[in-house]
Design goal:
The structure holds 2 protein chains of 2 kinds. In chain A, 70% of the residues lie in helices and 1% in strands. By secondary structure, chain A is mainly alpha-helical. Chain A has 2 domains: 6-425, Up-down Bundle (Sodium/glucose cotransporter), CATH 1.20.1730.10; 430-540, no CATH class. Chain A has a 3-stranded mixed β-sheet with strand order 2-1-3. In chain A, β1 and β2 form a beta hairpin. In chain A, α4 crosses α9 (164-212), α4 crosses α13 and α9 crosses α15 (311-320). By secondary structure, chain B is mainly alpha-helical. Chain B has one domain (4-69). The longest helix of chain B has 30 residues, at 40-69. Chain B is rod-shaped. The relative contact order of chain B is 0.22. The mean pLDDT of chain B is 86. Classes of the chains: A mainly alpha, B mainly alpha. Chains A and B meet through α2 and α9 of A and α1 and α2 of B.
Chain lengths: 573, 70
């Protein structure tokens, strides 16, 4: 799977300087956890970060927690395979959802005093809806953490020549120590540190790579040749919307409907508005307007991340089309291994010294992915599983200990997930499939719950279950690139991406329709008073705190971020 | 704890190491052949130093301003 090719690419050696950079980074990461240890006196401090973190920190953590192995490897690979179309995940696939979260959903999450997304579902609907979400989310976070751990251990094995098993243990211990000592706040602070390190570690790669291919114009020219060679129109690799008229006109195999509705609406809103991993960062902010600013502050770096993770993939594709450049990505099976792009490019361009920084940046990204998932897991486990079903009514000090135990348990189970990832070639595809099954219908449940006070708990639960079942059924009846079609091959999609987008759309639609129908057939068990603060029509309009300056107002920030994303979309149409 | 201080410190320390290594290898054309002949260690080190100093300076100036106000 990963890293099979790196030793075949070219020889490289790491020096004392490279190791010194890595060692100093680890000292700082652990030091932050140690410095925050003295503040961990309550479960709220440990699991919710004390709700006193400035929004510029939560905003950067909001993005950084998402920068795990799936993102760095997946987007680098997609940059090569699909070109600039991959940037949809950073524009229409993120920004509208982040603006919606800030303006319309954050007031409910932060204002309802719910400590987690599943707890909001309990307050708004009922216990079984919360349970369904809590258990499915806990499993998802463990797998996501395990994949980042696996990728980090493989990186250490191939680039540092460490034993794979020791690498797993070493990466687990580092993340465990700083999340156990400093809780969510330590994870958030380290995510900010890791964000800056990722930027400085990958930026020289883009600059040198672009120079090597003759700048943006040279890159465009080379990718035009690649597009024509593969049977597409010149320009397909360097535009975003232009070739979405039909699924056959672009390498991603999706049309504008699937892109707009599947990614832009269902998957983006399902992920950014309901996934507790990212929402937890906003909920740790020091005020309501700080919580609302969090996704908007995160939106700015999010829009420019393609420069760091997608452009290297595009450069790699251009270099592979020029035999004199000497870049190859051949895996053990003789096939091109696109997952290898970022590490291979680091080895290709970085000399001793900067190579240590580049590898440290990769490690930072995987560690932020692991820690983000572990801290989301320990909160959901403690509040939504342990306190709700196993041992309710205990003093807070008991739940602080359980939260710390859940951190150890989460890391331990992540190790198991990492070994599962090591034994299955398509574990990343599997995880993304689970995201589509769980997150897509969940947004329909949230939309109806937040904006229609009539929606009942029974309707929400069975709607959610129906949506997830519909996703599984759609995937079982369709096939793309040899995947899916467990029951029959009723439809063949041109790509796994198209299949994923349509699976999400079916899941959302079924959940939405079933929830509405069942709402009319079931009784509302919640009183108007119980729904106050949880439903839009029953909640007083949120006003910004007095004294807040104009550029800190969520609405102003939303307009600015929306405008920038529209301008970028037009420039790279 | 102000997170800008550890971030600033880390960037200053790593920037110093990279820049010093870049200066020590100024004449090493072979080392920088793969980065198209550019001394990327020196330039990245200097960039990190500037950013690290900025991150350390901001909370210091904020504290100074607050003290003057009080």
């Amino acid at each position: 799977m990963f890293f099979e090719a790196v030793t075949m690419v070219e020889n490289f050696t790491l020096s004392v300087v490279d190791y010194a950079i890595m060692a100093i980074y680890f000292v700082f990461v652990l030091g932050i956890g140690w410095a925050l240890k003295k503040y961990m006196k309550s479960s709220s401090q440990f699991l919710e970060g004390g709700k006193n973190i400035p929004s510029w920190i939560t905003g950067l953590a909001f993005i950084s927690a998402n920068l795990g192995a799936l993102e760095v490897f997946g987007m680098g690979a997609s940059g090569a395979k699909y070109g600039l179309m991959t940037a949809h995940f950073y524009l229409i696939g993120a920004i509208p959802a982040m603006i919606f979260l800030a303006l319309f959903m954050m007031p409910f999450y932060y204002g309802s005093k719910a400590r987690s997304v599943p707890e909001y579902l309990k307050l708004r609907f009922d216990e079984k809806t919360r349970g369904f979400n809590a258990f499915s989310f806990a499993i998802m976070t463990i797998f996501a953490s395990g994949i980042s751990m696996f990728a980090l251990a493989r990186l250490m094995e191939v680039m540092l020549h460490w034993n794979f098993h020791y690498s797993i243990i070493a990466s687990a211990i580092i993340v465990l120590v700083y999340t156990y000592l400093g809780g969510l706040k330590s994870a958030i602070y380290n995510e900010v540190l890791q964000f800056f390190l990722i930027v400085i570690g990958f930026l020289p790669l883009v600059i040198i790579g672009l120079q090597d291919v003759g700048g943006w114009d040279g890159l465009t020219m080379k990718l035009n040749e690649v597009a024509v060679q593969k049977g597409y129109a010149a320009g397909t690799w360097t535009s975003t919307w232009k070739y979405l008229g039909s699924a056959s006109a672009n390498p991603m195999g999706v049309d504008w409907i699937a892109m707009f509705m599947g990614l832009g609406f269902v998957l983006a809103f399902g992920y950014w508005c309901t996934n507790f991993l990212v929402v937890q960062r906003a909920m740790a902010a020091n005020s309501m307007s700080g919580a609302r600013r969090t996704p908007l502050i995160g939106a700015l770096p999010k829009m420019f991340l393609p420069i760091l993770v997608i452009v290297p993939g595009m450069i790699a594709m251009a270099l592979m089309s020029s035999p004199d450049k000497g870049l190859m990505l051949i895996g053990n099976n003789g096939q091109t291994d696109y997952n290898m792009i970022i590490p291979t490019m680091l080895v290709h361009y970085y000399p001793t010294g900067l190579l240590g920084l580049g590898i440290t940046a990769l490690m930072a990204s995987f560690m932020s992915g692991m820690a983000g998932n572990v801290t989301a897991f320990n909160t959901v486990f403690t509040y939504d599983i342990y306190q709700s079903y196993i041992n309710p009514g205990k003093p807070d000090s008991h739940y602080l200990k359980v939260g710390q135990f859940a951190t150890i348990f989460g890391v331990a189970v992540s190790i198991g997930a990492a070994y599962i990832a090591a034994n299955f070639n398509n574990i990343m595809d599997f995880l993304q499939l689970i995201f589509a099954f769980v997150n897509a219908p969940l947004f329909a449940t949230f939309m109806l719950g937040m904006f229609w006070k009539r929606t009942t708990g029974n309707a929400a639960f069975w709607g959610l279950l129906s949506g997830t079942t519909a996703a599984a059924l759609h995937y079982s009846l369709t096939i793309a690139e040899g995947k899916g079609g467990w029951i029959a091959h009723l439809v063949e999609y041109p790509s796994g991406m198209a299949q994923g987008f349509w699976t999400a759309m079916y899941a959302w639609t079924v959940c939405f329709v079933i929830t509405i129908i069942l709402t009319f057939l079931t009784k509302q068990l919640k009183t108007i008073d119980e729904l106050r603060g949880l439903v839009y029509s029953l909640t007083p309009k949120t006003h910004d705190e007095p004294g807040i300056v104009w550029y800190e107002k969520p609405l102003v920030l939303a307009v600015i971020m929306g405008t920038i994303s529209i301008v970028l979309t037009i420039i790279f149409w | 704890m102000d997170i800008r201080i550890p971030i600033g410190l880390l960037f200053v320390v790593l920037g110093l190491i990279l820049a010093a290594f870049g200066v020590a290898t100024l004449q090493d054309a072979e080392l920088y052949a793969r980065s198209l002949g550019r001394n990327v260690n020196l330039w990245t080190g200097l960039l990190m130093l500037i950013f690290g100093a900025f991150m350390l300076l901001v909370p210091y100036l904020a504290r100074k301003k607050k003290a003057a106000k009080d």
